[in-house]
Amino acid sequence: MAARSARRTSVLELAVLGLLHEAPMHGYELRKRLSGVLGTFHAISYGSLYPCLKDLVARGWIIEDTTTTDAVPALGKRARIVYTLTAEGKEAFRALIADAGPDTWEDDRFGVRLAFFGRTEASVRLRILEGRRSRLEERLDALRSSLSRTRERLDTYTLELQQHGLESVEREVRWLDELIASEREQPTTSTKKSGAPSGSPVSTQPGAGNHPSAHGV
Predict the structure, then answer these.
(1) For 124-134, what is the mean pLDDT?
(2) 188-208 in b/e burial notation, b at 16+ Cβ within 10 A?
(3) Which residue has the higher pLDDT, 199 or 45?
(4) Which residues of 89-108 are buried (b: 16+ CB within 10 A; e: fewer)?
(5) Backbone angles phi, psi at 65, to 5 degrees
(6) How far apart are CA 196 and CA 22, in angstroms?
(7) Architecture of domain 2-97 in CATH?
(8) Residue 10 and residue 52: Cα distance in Å, rounded?
(9) How far apart are CA 113 and CA 209, in angstroms?
(10) What is the pTM of this model?
(11) Phi and psi (nearest 5°) for 83?
């Protein structure tokens, strides 16, 4: 449980840094934007967001500013704290999006990494996409094996549910194949493309984590 919580915190930090890389924001706006990046099934509460922001402030990655409320729409009469990315925060964000290790292929992280592909080096994008495809191909083998062993013992509805899960993973593999083919056609020095202007989270498929996995981010 602790490990899962730590991973979720790390994903939230990446999303916050990525959004603040675009522009300063207050907590209310950040929370709304995070729902789009992390997916509708991962609504972020203020109880999760503000401790994360407090920790990022303590690290020197972001700063709080109550004197620049005109930088974002003012809500209500009381002053709003605006969060701004520091130079150290920008460097931390660049380091985070340079990672293409196995963690970036997992359900809880892949969608967030995809959202910031516009700021990710082409070679890193390709490694993440290929890693994600490899991970899903392993999942497909396991699902097909399980289904073949248990098909005769399953009732109609359970069988349909498992078949739906299998087809969902197959669709994501085909989608990844298309993305990988597109990446390989691009110049390796490019850090743009990926379907969105540089600096903007990409919008790919509707649903959890902005990608067509049946399992979400």
Answers:
(1) 97
(2) eeebebbebeeeebbebeebb
(3) 45
(4) beebbeebbebbeeebbbbb
(5) -140, 120
(6) 13
(7) Orthogonal Bundle (1.10)
(8) 9
(9) 10
(10) 0.76
(11) -100, 130
